[in-house]
Each structure stands twice: as C-alpha cells, then as structure tokens.
Amino acid sequence: MTLKSLAVAFGLATTALSATPVLAQYPERPVQIVIPYGPGGATDLSARALASALSSHSSEPFVLVNRTGAGGATGSAAVANAQGDGYTVLAARVGSHTVNPAMKANLPYKLEDFRFVGVYEINPVVCAVAADSDIQSMDDLIAKAKQDPAAVRYSTSGVGSMLQIAAAMVLDSFGVENVKEVTHLPLAGDGEAALAVYQGTATFICTNSSPLASFVKNGQLRPILVTTSEPVEGFDAPTAASLGHEDLESLVGWTGIAGPDDMPDEAAEQWRSWLAEAVKDETFLKFMKQVGSQVDLMSPDESLEFVNNQYQTFSRLVDELGLRVE
Amino acid sequence: MSLMDQIGMGFALVAQWQSVGYLILGVTIGVIAGAIPGMSAVMAVALTLPFTFSLQPIFGILLLLGVYKGGVFGGSIPAILIKTPGTPASSATTIDGYPLAEKGQAGKALDMALYASCIADLVSNLALILFAGWLASFALQFGPPEFFTLILFSLTIIAGVSGDSLLKGCISAILGLFLATVGLDLVYGTDRFIFGSPDLMGGLNFIAVLIGLFAIPEIFAYVRQPKEIDGDVRKLGHVHLTFAEFRRSLKSILRGSFIGVILGAIPGIGAAPAAFVSYSEARRNSPNRANFGKGEIEGVAAAESGNNGVAGATLIPLLALGVPGDVTTAIIIGAFMIHGLQPGPMMFATNGDMIYAIFIGLVLSSAILLLVGGAAIRGFRYIADVPRYVLLPSVLVLSVYGVFAVNNSVFDVAVMFAVGALGYAMLLLRIPAAPFVIAFILGPLLENNFRQSLLMSQGSLDILARGPITWFFWGLTVLAIVLIVRQTMQASRERADLATLSPSPSGAPTAGRAAE
C-alpha cells in the first residue's frame, strides 16, 4: 500500500491527492530547517519569522541552522544529500534555486533533487540609482549604457547572485545589446551593494525591495523601476509592465520550503498545512509586510511550476548573454 | 519640540525599570554568548531579534544593543582563560591574555579586559553622540580603492605580532593568505582548491580555523608532554589589577578606543582588524615592547579597547545615515523597521526622543557592562584554577561542540582538527599564530577591494591613488615599512653584539620566563 501510494504520488507528481498518512505522528522529533544564507539576511529573517509562526502548530520544535557559503550552494547541497525522512528541510531561495542552477555549470545539486512543499513569499525587484545621480528614469540609464557600457556599473552580492541576473535581465529587456560589457561590480552582500550605489561606487542596482527600503525612505537612492505588476508601496517608480516590459514580471525574489526529493508524503502534507496556518498568522504577516514581502502561498504544484519557469527564463538569458560560470 | 524637550522625553523613555532591565538582560545574554566559543555577537543578536517583535520599540532596541555590547566583551573571557577566542574580534586578546593566565594572572588579565572594554565602549558611545554626522560622512568616502590602501597598511601590523622573527611571521601570514583563498572567488565565481567538495565551496569556516589555530595546539602539546607543564602548577587566578598597571595602560586604552571608533564607523571592516591595529600600535609605542606576546598587560588592554571601541561606532552610519555598516547593525535596523521606525537623518526630527533614549541607554550600557562583566569574571575566573587534566579535555569538547554548532557541520570540525595540526606544527617551529589570523581576515578583503577598484577604473591603476584618503594610507604604509626595516636591522645588530659578548643562544623566548 505504501509503495502503491508512493507510486501514485510520484506518477501524478502531486501531494494534493495523497493517500491517508501511514504514520500519523510526523513530527516525532525536532525538524531542522536549513537556511543556506547567513544570520540577518532576507532568507534568514524570513525563515525565522516562519518558524516562530509555526511553533504553536507543531508539537516538536524547529531547529534553524545557517549553513552558509558559495551563494547558498553549500546549504542547498547539504539538504539535497540529507536523509529523505522529512526532518531536514531547506529554506530555498531565488538565488540558491533558480539563479545558481541557471548560471553555474558545476553546481553540486539540481532542481530535481528537491521536493517543493510551498513557496510562501514573493519579493518585488526594484532598480535604483543614487538620489544625486543625473539618471532620472530607465530611459536615462539605458541611454548611458548604450553610449558607454563599461562606464555604467551595477553592484551585486556576487557572481551567480539574483542581483547579477536581475541587472542583466533588465538591461537586456530594455534593448542594451552588449550587456556583458556593462561593468559588473560584485560585493560581499546586498547591503554593501546598495551602499555602493549611494556612495557612487556603482551606477545602479537591481535587488529586492527590502535592502533598498531604508535608503529610499531616507531619500538616498531613487527607485526607477519595479518588476511586479502592481506598484510597490514606498517605491515611487513605474512598473515594468507600464513601460511595456511584461517579460520582467517573472523577475521576483521568493522563499519557499523544500525537502530532499525523497521526502515522504506525510511530511510534505504536514508542511503544507503548516504553511497554510503560517500565512494566516498576524505577527508573521506584519513582519513580512515590514520587510517588503508579499505573502503568497503556492501549492506544491504551483511552486514547482513557478520555480521551473523562472529557472528556464534565467537559463535562456544566461545562454544568450554568455553569463555561465564554468 | 525643542532639543531639551526631546532629551527630556528620551530620558523618560529610558528611566523605566523595564528599560534598564532589558539592557541588563541583553548584556548578560551577550556576555554569556560571547564567552561560548563558536557563538559570535552577530549570532546572539540574530537569535534575540525575534523576541523583540512583541516588545515596545525602545525595550527591544536596548535589548539588542545590550546583547551586541556584551557579546563583544564576552569573547575575551575564553580568549584569556583557555586560549580560545569566543569571537573573532578577541583573537588579538589571546596573544597576551593567555600567557598571563599561564603565569597565574588570569584575574589581572580579565580585570584589564573589562576596564579597557568599558572605557573604550564609553569613548565609542560618546563619539557616536557627539560626532556621528561628521564621522559618518567621512566613513562614506571609503570606496574600494580607499579600503585597499587601508588594508594594505593594516597588513604591516603583521610585523608587530611576529614575535622575534619577521621571517617566521611572514611564513605564518602567507599560510593564512593561502588558506583564505579556498572557496569561490568573489569576482568571477571561479572554484579555488575545492577539489569538488561542496563543503569547501564556501571557503574554510572562520571560527573553525580560529579555534583550530589557538586552542587545539595547546591540547596536542599537553597530550604529548603532560608532565612538563603540569609541574608548573598554575596559581589561583585571583591576582587583581593594580592601579599602577592600569595607569600605565591608559594611553593604549585611549589610543585603542580611537582606532576602534574610526574603523568602526567605516562600513565593512569589523572589530577584529581594529583590535589588531590597536595592539600593534600599542606595541610600537610601548617601552615594554619586548614583553608583548609573552604576557604583557598593556597588550590585553590595547586589544580589548580596539575591539570594543568599534561597538558604539558601528551605530554611527546606522543612526546618522540609516546605513547598516555590518551584519549586526543590519539586524538591528530590522528591529527598528518592524516598529515602523526609520533610522537616518530624518529620525532626529520624527523620533528625536527615541534617538536620545538610545544615546542615554548606550551610555548606561557601558556602566552595566562594568557590573555584569565584573560578575561574569568572578564566576569564570575559577576556570583558571581547574587542573589542566580536567580543563583541556573540557576545552576540547567545548571546541568541537562550538565549531559544530556554527554550521551544524561535521566538516567544520574536521577543518578545526586539520588546522589544529598545522597550528601544532607551527607551535613546535615557533611560528607565531597571530600573523596567520590577520592574513586570513585581511587577505580576502585586500584581494576583493583591489579587484573591485580595477573593475571600477576599467583596469587603470591610477584609481588606487585617487584622493587624500588613499594618499594618507600610502604614506602610512611606507612609513610603517621604513620603521620595520629599521627595527629589524637594529635588532639583528643587537643580537650580533650579544652573540659576541656571551656564547649562550638568545632570541627565541623561553617558555617560562617570568614577567618583570
């Protein structure tokens, strides 16, 4: 019966129809959530807020573990290779699961190594320049990039980061032909990258709204584009769609929970209901709103489709622009 | 609302028993977390953050600031007692702190660490309150070229912590630089020395390297020769700091505080380089130069004032500009924003009472650190009396546990033992460990800033001398090198003179040499 239900689940690639749980007791011991980025980062804060919202719904505690390194690859590889018992899950992030796989040829894991139980937050991507810069709009920026690509610099949090692909995708969408000639300035984190634009070290940055929020509120950075279809509160900038670039709407940050590919149905099912509870939690919603995220729970199928679509978009772009890292 | 009103309201915010209570709680958590090897101040702050969401804004922020300040000091306790820096920033403290503990003067070293920390903390807080705007705009002029020259200058301190042989110091530094290259390169994302292992992709864990380098060699040494060290029974660690020693070190403490303030205000440097620069400057200027590294109380004072001087100053870019200067302040900015507060120039107008409440709370925190730290020292100093056959195995267990806890990774524990073996070999060859640590911290910064500068200038080296700040550090670097060359030549001449006078070997320090 176990085999059969597994086979059904596998065949349909869904947990929506999963059979009655065999062992009704998950979790029997603490569940480890691996965060592939450092303490205090967007993924870390998001996962910690999630875990504290979940704590009242689980009989067992959640153990949050930061396994940092290599742009999220070290922690992701650790979960991909972990035992598929449902007691080790990953706070998967745009950087570790769509950008890295699209850009790095020799990554020690693939998307298929994971079972997604749900993407629960979406972060808009915002492009910004320094407030005292003479660039007022995307048109100004693109004109500059076309005229002298090497003199335009975009700051990122490293090779294979979401920031790098975001800037490249925006430039490409707006018709800059030699995107590779625009100077890429990798820094140690997205905070430093935003600071570099404010200092004038870099010309522009495209990243999630949260590291930029403080700079924009203080009038230090000027947002010139948001990629979501709706305008983002606090960021007075046109949406990509309003400028005729609907293709940029797939460029968003996200966080989700994923287990190793052999994670049992029962655990995946439990996680689904946990996530459904968490996205109703007042404190959690308030926190996510403060850091500029939109809480939006996707079902496992939707999550997988969403992640795959983004991965394919990024892969195509990486191939076109020759950004792959060997 | 006038300034006095705002200060008055700020005072009212702090003058609640809860404010003081949360500050005390924070400092206590911080000191304990800092004292546990493997728990850094950053981790303690990150773990405390979720608990502040439900608190009133001022309580939550004071709690976090308390944790941060306590954590920076707490690291010095194991650094002195068991040669295991509790936080990276306290690795400079081990250089003289541990030899003092070896001589049975742990109590004295801990006292000095506490006083130096509190004074530097106070100086740092006052600098924040009085010069925040000015220091912040200075700090913002630091781009990659300025960083590069600053770090190049900082590398000259390797000479100051090399002990007797500059050559051995350089060997140690080169080993550190080499191990720091492991992992993905920042600029092109190329794999370096990872041998296909995902664990190595992220580079060697800093805490694992640190503990491996300092604590593990002591244990290896004891396992091989337990008798030799056991014969020299450690005295009870109850020797207190005398006022004369304090006064002698005061200059170094103040110098360290200022170094900490300047380096702390610049985003992205952190407390460890400040501690080393302060230590090296103190050594250069001290009449007891020869005793540094062998248990010089002034060395402890310099290292601790350097790293605590950073603590208040990192808040300068945060409060003056709303810019987080390091990971800790990035977490603290999150605590502000969850309560709808926006740090930055506007906050003085919109939430002035809050700013002044933080200022008052910070000054108060220096005093609380003195009390809580004093109590912690009284509790912890008995560790110095524990016999080595009990202490060292405990240190080993604690080190394994601490290193594992950073990343929940057995691989990191393996790294710790591998570096421990290297550290033991270095100990046998009398190669000092401090230059290794400095190079390991500064090497990647040097490389990245150099390459970032060249990316900015599209390959032209002119950018490395683009303004007054770069010229200043180039000048300092040249000056430091000239001084090092002169001192080295002088020392070798003295050694030659000595050799002609007496046939006994000199130079290498004997382990049990008493302090004056």
UniProtKB/TrEMBL annotation, chain A:
It comes from the Bacteria. Residues 1-24 form the signal peptide. CDD domains: PBP2_Bug_TTT. Pfam families: TctC (PF03401). InterPro entries: BUG, Bug_dom1. Keywords: Receptor, Signal. Belongs to the UPF0065 (bug) family. This is Tripartite-type tricarboxylate transporter, receptor component TctC. It comes from Fulvimarina manganoxydans.
From TrEMBL, chain B:
The chain crosses the membrane at residues 20-46, 58-82, 113-135, 147-163, 170-188, 200-223, 257-279, 315-342, 354-377, 389-406, 413-443, 463-485. InterPro entries: DUF112_TM (IPR002823). Keywords: Membrane, Transmembrane, Transmembrane helix. Residues 22-438 form the DUF112 domain. It comes from the Bacteria. Residues 496-516 are annotated as: Disordered. PANTHER family: TRICARBOXYLIC TRANSPORT PROTEIN (PTHR35342). This is Putative tricarboxylic transport membrane protein.
